[in-house]
Design goal:
Number of helices: 3
Distance between the termini: 13 Å
Shape: globular
Strand content: under 5%
Oligomer: single chain
Low-confidence stretches: none
Structural class: mainly alpha
């Protein structure tokens, strides 16, 4: 049970890392506005922003415009989750 919790925590922090990776170099706020599709700028619903699961369910595409979302988002979340489990 602890490993599942640690994995989820790592994925959530990986998702936050993705926010930092995208927004900090562009001098954008890390708080507001919420996450949006890089192509069509549609704000993501909470259920389209669940680490790892949403990317897989949407097959790596925006629900609105169907443009592919960079796989980096998925891999950063997965790597972060795996590292949390390994460190634990």
């Amino acid at each position: 049970m602890a490993l599942i919790f640690i994995f989820i925590l790592g994925a959530v922090l990986g998702s936050f890392l993705n926010v930092l990776i995208y927004r900090v170099p562009r001098n954008l706020s890390i708080v507001y506005p919420g996450s949006a599709c890089p192509a069509c700028q549609t704000t993501l619903k909470w259920y389209d922003n669940v680490p790892l699961i949403s990317y897989l369910l949407l097959r790596g595409k925006c629900r609105n415009c169907q443009v592919a979302i960079n796989a980096r988002y998925f891999w950063v979340e997965l790597l972060s989750a795996a590292l949390f489990v390994l460190i634990y």
